[in-house]
Specification:
The chain is of the alpha/beta class. It is built from 36 helices and 44 strands. Strands 3-5-2-15-16-1-17 form a 7-stranded parallel beta sheet, sandwiched between helices. Strands 4-34-39-38-35-37-36 form a 7-stranded mixed beta sheet, sandwiched between helices. It has a 7-stranded parallel beta sheet with strand order 29-30-28-31-32-27-33, with helices on both faces.
Length: 1135
């Protein structure tokens, strides 16, 4: 939409009078307005606007719609999720959104939408902002300390906002509020180049001339502040009379005193830089209250909750007396409100509550019809409108839809026009590629606006959430267990640089059993991998036969597995199944009725499944994806395709809880499409069961959702066409055998919430059909995460906070023997809660009944061990409290946090630890990691590694999972690939006497060097060489010759492996490729290469056959020519 296209004057009627009133500052109320008209009025306002909503979701929605109608840039001002209590560590997502909103507000943004809560909290008067400009100077030495004072965290890798890293003279930083991180090249103190880059691919984007680095904290203190702050804290501590509360307050005070550079918002009420919302408003700003009655109720509820929480937390010493001032006083807010321009907008006529309006207006518009099922109705209405002199604007949501609709209109001889600059110049029909939720008809100016939601059922996602893809099993770090392909499991203890007369090289030092050490050259890191398996594996003995025996046992098992897999695949390929017809018309209607746009992964999974079902092969496909990522919708599309063909479908679950969930979802999804759905489990009465069994046998039931009850002998289908299995690995052995028999002749789709490694997926490609969904839906919000000391006050506060919004709470307590004692304690802390307990040693019926009670909403607090089911979707459970979180692994913490935050409501996760307990270094690192990665999908490789190993075990079986633990996942995966493909690659011995290492001056951190060594060692082609070369240059700058040598050696080694070269050497200007025997020289490809390079090549047959290279002045050129020799030989057959 073009800026200022709409205006009050051109709309006419009473709109110009309304505009004059707001210009004069007359308190005004507008009644009878729809959401779309509110957004239009806000967008047309010629003054700065703050548009106030009841919650964050409404603020975001208003921002998008106002921008679509006004063409103006609209910012969002968020509230901090936690302002009262001191949190040692917390996720900063809401803080960063707030800081960006504050910057935009104070810099005179046209329009800011804000949730009411955001206006009541304290604001900083000024926020530091660092601007770096190409060609200008900044003290490079002072840069790190400057950024730390601004709230940024220095890290090895930039993955989230508020983080920076320095590599030599290159600064990588992800500024708060920025769309992408930025890489800044310095030369001394001079900024040479500024380039944003894609976080997910590392690709540099278009250069920019300057970058603004906004503050990552709202706590900006001066020198005099610290003494005053410490004095105020000390005074507050002395106010506590209760010994327990005093001890906790003293503990917090000591932590704050010790941390001289703290940026905790806890201190805001004590700082001179703190102020209120009204002090920051630009002159003549108009406040618009969206639904005043709702906002007034929210206003009072927020203050009530704030005060109740304050006194509740103060009782336990969690907050100090000054903490109440984190909100401005209620009376102050209302008093200041009377001094600014203000408008209340309401759907219904009534009291605006916040102020007494001096002028009121009733603006009404006609809502547009819904055209979801018929373009013909749309064409008729447009024809009627245009005949009556109306103009028509259609908001399609994206460019592809706009083009498609334009083409359709052209076929129907309906011409469209380009949007002019002003409404007065607009005639006819115009199609826009922007998104507007709902349309309206403005009769005063004869304009019909049709919204995206009026045209399509699917809501286009406003932001694609992507995950940083990469090798989940990356380079080992110092302290990691590692696996050497020959010597077995050791422990990486550090890097060693060794200098000889022939050059400098770096080695990875590995400790083995009995204190033996092995030094692995960095260029041979492809024989080394990080151990991923059991937490504390036994170290192998160098030169011992134990690891070789283990490896041989694994190989033998893999040989059998590969044989079974290939046999199964061959049998399936021969077995002919039913080819479902592509019923495009009805299928399209069913797909169009889904209210969301499919994610790319969902779409590709649907296409793969349809491809299987519409072919004659019997489908046996695995669908992997986290809970809430949309597997069920993908499965339902397969079910509907089956039902359209006149066949029946069965969806089998391992528990009654999952069964009930799927049944409820299926009833809702299929209700308008004539699909008969039934649920068969132990909750059915005998009479209900008999009726369902009869319906299955006579074909009246199209889809049955059930537990293993579906495998009973009395269950007979008339015409079963599709079996959908949810979490198959959780069925018992006997049930699995029955399922195996059942799936031989019908299409089968298996769903699992546990991910599998990409490497395994690729190894099994063509043997096991796998579809993966790794894209989270756009409406999922990051979970607000806290790492906190466990106190009864905190547990009560977190629970009451959730229960007060009618939500549910998970409390994870992982000690079965004392779980009921703990539950009794929680009952005393929370007498108002309905509590149920679930743990793994309960019998199945008792356990399911407890979970069903929680699922059905009869209980609002579930105290459970880690057995809580993966597959259960509980959108109303949005608070998680983990007791003794330091005792859990990183993947458990990551997966547990995923149990909450399934709905559109902000969720909270509290990872607690005992105050008196000394945490291990590993536990501290785990909790820090889970804190750092609050964005959905970020920190993926760190948190998902052992989860994926579990997933690999689910796919391949328990025996294979045991083998993975013995040799580590990466070696296991390599051996499996060799068995499946029949290809075993030889790794050549290297004796290359040149400088080949990564200098510390190039990559300072050992972790960074190890990671780069691993990348280089895995180069297997010239294309890989170019990619790694570009990546290193981009990240660290121009490659030193020693690093370039490493890359050339890696390419040479990879080509040598294709010809089973035994040894590669380069000594005093002579290169050599040693082959295992004479048969290699008989290869016509090698013969052709010998002829081509005859001038600089000779054969040496003194011992083993050796091809020698000579006559090159530089070693790097010599190695490149050796690579070209092998590359020519490799491609000779195709020339």
């Amino acid at each position: 939409m073009k800026r200022n296209f709409f205006s009050f004057e051109e709309i006419g009627g009473e709109y110009p009078a309304y505009a004059e009133d707001i210009r004069r500052g007359t308190p005004t109320a507008v009644f009878g307005v729809s959401d779309s008209l509110k957004y239009l009025l806000a967008g047309m306002t010629p003054l700065p606007v703050v548009y106030i909503t009841a919650d964050a979701f409404s603020a975001q929605k208003a921002a998008e719609n106002i921008a679509a109608l006004s063409g103006k840039k609209v910012s969002v001002l968020a509230a901090k999720d936690e302002v009262l209590s001191y949190r040692k560590a917390l996720s900063k997502d809401s803080l960063f959104k707030r800081l960006k909103g504050i910057y935009d507000l104070t810099r005179g943004a046209d329009i800011v939408t804000a949730e009411l809560d955001a206006l009541l909290q304290l604001f900083p008067k000024k926020l530091p902002c660092l601007t770096l400009t190409e060609g200008e100077d900044f003290d490079f030495v002072a840069l790190p300390s400057t950024l730390v004072r601004m709230g940024y965290v220095r890290s090895f890798e930039v993955e989230t906002q508020g983080v920076f890293t320095l590599r030599g003279d290159i600064l990588d930083i992800y500024p708060v509020g920025a769309e992408n991180p930025v890489r800044i090249d310095f030369f001394g103190d001079t900024v040479e180049k500024i380039k944003p880059y894609d976080l997910f691919t590392g690709t540099r984007l278009q250069s920019v001339k300057s970058v603004e680095i906004l503050s990552a904290t709202d706590v900006v203190s001066c020198e005099t502040d610290r003494a005053n702050v410490l004095a105020a804290i000390e005074k507050s501590v002395k106010e506590f009379k209760n010994p327990t509360a005093y001890a906790r307050a003293r503990e917090i005070a000591d932590e704050l005193r010790a941390d001289e550079e703290t940026t905790s918002s806890f201190l805001l009420p004590l700082l001179k830089n703190s102020t209120d919302f009204f002090s920051l408003l630009p002159e003549n700003t108009l406040l618009i209250f969206d639904e005043s009655k709702t906002l007034w109720d929210k206003f009072n509820a927020l203050y009530k909750e704030h005060e109740e929480r304050f006194y509740r937390l103060k009782e336990g010493g969690e907050v100090f007396g000054f903490s109440l001032a984190q909100y401005v006083k209620k009376e102050f807010f209302l008093e200041k409100l009377q001094t600014v321009r203000r408008v209340a907008m309401q759907t219904f006529t009534g009291n605006p509550f916040f102020f007494q309006p001096l002028r009121t207006y009733n603006f009404s518009v006609t809502p547009t019809a819904k055209y979801l099922n018929g373009v013909s109705t749309l064409l008729t209405d447009i024809a009627n409108w245009t005949r009556g002199g109306y103009r028509v604007l259609l908001y399609c949501g994206d460019n592809s839809r706009a083009v498609k609709l334009g083409e359709y209109f052209g076929e129907e001889y309906l011409s469209t026009v380009k949007l002019p600059d002003t409404m007065s110049a607009f005639k006819g029909v115009c199609i826009l590629d922007e998104k507007l939720d709902k349309g309206m008809v403005l009769h005063e100016c004869k304009l019909a606006i049709i919204g995206t939601g009026d045209l399509y059922t699917k809501v286009q996602p406003t932001k694609r959430l992507r995950r940083k893809r990469g090798d989940m099993f990356s380079a080992p770090e110092v302290g990691d267990f590692v696996v050497h392909e020959t010597h077995g499991i050791g422990k990486a203890v550090g890097m060693r640089k060794i200098e000889t007369t022939d050059g400098i090289k770096e080695y990875v030092a590995i400790a083995y059993k009995d204190g033996d050490m092995l030094y692995v050259p960095a260029e041979s890191m492809d024989v080394l991998s990080k151990y991923v398996g059991d937490e504390n594996p036994a170290l192998s003995k160098i030169g011992g036969a134990d690891f070789e025996r283990v490896k041989n046992r694994v190989k033998a098992s893999l040989k059998k597995l590969a044989f079974d897999l290939k046999k199964l695949y061959a049998e399936r390929a021969e077995n002919r199944g039913y080819a479902f017809p592509e019923n495009t018309v009805f299928m399209q209607e069913f797909e169009d009725a889904f209210p969301h746009e499919l994610t790319p992964d969902q779409f590709s999974s649907v296409q793969e499944i349809k491809g299987d079902m519409c072919s004659e092969k019997v489908m046996d496909r695995l669908l992997c994806g986290d809970v809430g990522f949309g597997k069920t919708e993908v499965a339902f599309r397969a079910v509907y395709l089956c039902v359209l063909a006149g066949k029946q479908a069965a969806l089998m679950c391992p528990s009654t809880v999952l069964c009930s969930q799927h049944f409820n979802t299926a009833m809702q999804r299929f209700s308008d499409f004539g699909v008969s759905v039934a649920c068969l489990n132990r909750f059915n009465t005998p009479k209900e069961q008999a009726k369902i069994l009869e319906g299955l046998e006579n074909g009246k039931i199209d889809l049955v959702v059930g537990t293993h009850r579906l495998l009973s002998s009395d269950v007979k289908f008339k015409n079963l066409g599709l079996l959908v299995l949810d979490e198959e690995q959780r069925f018992g052995v006997e049930h699995k055998e029955k399922i195996k028999h059942l799936r031989q002749d019908i299409d089968c789709l298996t769903m699992t919430a546990t991910p599998i490694p990409r490497t395994l997926h690729m190894s099994l490609s063509g043997i096991r059909d796998i579809s993966t969904i790794q894209t989270p839906p756009s409406e999922r919000l990051p979970v607000q995460t806290y790492v906190v000391e466990e106190t009864e006050t905190l547990i009560r506060d977190a629970c009451i906070r959730e229960l007060s919004r009618d939500g549910q709470v998970f409390i994870l307590y992982n000690k079965v023997e004392s779980i009921f004692t703990f539950a009794a304690r929680i009952g005393q802390i929370l007498p108002e809660a309905e509590i149920c307990v679930a743990h793994g040693r309960m019998d199945k019926t008792t356990l399911e009944n407890a979970v069903m009670r929680f699922y059905g909403g009869k209980a609002n607090v579930l105290i459970t061990t880690t057995i809580i089911e993966n597959g259960i979707d509980l959108p109303n459970a949005n608070t998680l409290i983990v007791i003794d979180s330091d005792r859990l692994g990183i993947s458990q913490l990551y997966q547990l946090r995923g149990r909450v935050g399934r709905g559109a409501r902000l969720a909270h996760a509290y990872f607690t630890y005992k105050a008196e307990k000394i945490m291990t270094e590993n536990a501290t690192a785990r909790l820090k990691a889970i804190m750092e990665f609050t964005e959905l999908g970020s920190g993926y490789k760190l948190a998902m590694r052992d989860l994926e190993i579990r997933g690999a075990g689910n796919v391949l079986g328990a025996e294979q999972h045991g083998h993975m633990d013995k040799v580590g996942y990466e070696l296991y995966s390599k051996l499996l690939k060799e068995e499946l493909t029949g290809e075993t690659q030889t790794v050549a011995e290297l004796d290359i006497r040149v400088n080949a290492y990564i200098p510390e001056s190039y990559i300072e951190s050992s972790a960074g060097r190890l990671d780069s060594y691993k990348q280089i060692a895995e180069i297997s082609s010239v294309a890989d060489y170019k990619r790694v070369y570009a990546s290193l240059t981009d990240t660290y700058g121009e490659l030193p010759r020693a690093v370039e040598n490493l890359l050339v050696i890696a390419v040479l080694k990879s080509y040598a492996a294709k010809f089973s070269v035994k040894k590669i050497s380069l000594i005093k200007g002579v290169g050599a490729l040693e082959f295992p025997d004479l048969t290699a020289l008989g290869d016509k490809r090698i013969s052709a290469a010998l002829d081509k390079y005859a001038k600089n090549v000779r054969l040496n047959m003194s011992e083993a056959p050796v091809v020698e290279f000579f006559g090159y002045k530089e070693d790097v050129v010599l190695m490149a020519e050796m690579t070209k020799f092998l590359k020519f030989a490799l491609t000779f057959a195709s020339l």
